[in-house]
């Protein structure tokens, strides 16, 4: 009993010390520690305290929250035994950072005074987190040139990359911190270093629309290279509707006329269907400009070779002449389909960015209750992603929701689409099991498990939809196809061991609240799983 009481007192004191440091109560912090011996202080200051998803020492907490007075007390009065290189788990916005030191936290949170104190006390300026992020990278992310300069002057390695081989120059370029980019370049940063995805700093700046950073990188000799998907910075900018960057790069002497034409076509196509930068006027303007360049007789004709029509895009035939493009003006639907067709021709089916606007255009159709067009586009996007082994957890849930919405408002479901999605779900669950057995590089096993279990629950929603169809009068052949598709889902189970049948009869099973709750009440659902 006495032992337990002593443990509780010790735990309470640890928490009081931790919160005093975190909240900047320097005098309280000192008062709690000054009469303790070194062994007690070591226990209080060098062991983690868990609070709100954070697990770290008092020094790390004080550094993270900018409590310079508390940091000074700890460094000047209690070092040793306080340790500078102890790692903790902290939160920065929506990110959880594992393996962060006090210096990393101070640099990432922009506390220059604390950075200086820690470095003067002997903190390792290159001590990286679990993902190999250094204090310098944290400062580059936040755009703190003063901290970046101080760390570099005190030995920070500007070439040290994280686990994805993403460098400080890349993150500064991605965030658009021009002054940091210029300093790193002047300090000898390798301008054409590649991340594991094959992208350079120029790719990151271009796709985010940071024209001034793009210009600075080019001025320091950056080359226009391709990433692992075969895309140049010019194409990345066009795909993201970054007009100013496209204008700058397309005019570069190393860019051919054909490359410039395709960049303007891709830019116009992206404006036609981009969720964030949608602009039908700009879509027409750049598609027209690209076609005019193709027929500029001063430089010779560049005739277009259109791809075969795609059913999901209304079998749209891509424009091949200036007159064709001019007929699109004022016709939003035509420009939407032209844009999707152009994007697929230029980017190719294997490009991971291709499906996003397809999904967006489908969502617009769903909002207009044009479900046939919505389902055709979403099916195409799902096929593209599964062809390229991209996770489709959101795609499957999206189908379950729209099917449930259609049932809710009394619209007949297309049976072939339901069967297709059931089969796609079964395939994704099969792939999920394989991923769990052999996790792909750079994928967290816990995250893979959560994705798999999300797909299992979505499978239940889809089975509930199928059950509703079986309750109606449908042909026996169609019913057999649905039952066959459901059969392939029956073996799926959560880590708890629950199968779809268990979930179907368990009241505690969470149900998505976007109309799926309306259909997840069917006895037939249990019957076809039994």
UniProtKB/TrEMBL annotation:
Under the heading Gene3D superfamilies, the entry gives:
Ankyrin repeat-containing domain (1.25.40.20)
The protein's superkingdom reads Eukaryota
Keyword Repeat attributed:
yes
Q: In which pathway does it act?
A: Protein modification; protein ubiquitination
The record's section on InterPro entries has: Ankyrin_rpt, Ankyrin_rpt-contain_sf
A single cellular component GO annotation: cytoplasm
State the ANK repeat positions: 98-130, 131-163, 164-196, 197-229
Q: Which UniProt keywords apply?
A: ANK repeat, Repeat, Ubl conjugation pathway
Family that this chain belongs to: Belongs to the fem-1 family.
- Identify the PANTHER family for this entry: ANKYRIN REPEAT CONTAINING, PROTEIN FEM-1 HOMOLOG B
What's the name of the protein?
Protein fem-1 homolog B
Encoding gene, per UniProt annotation:
FEM1B
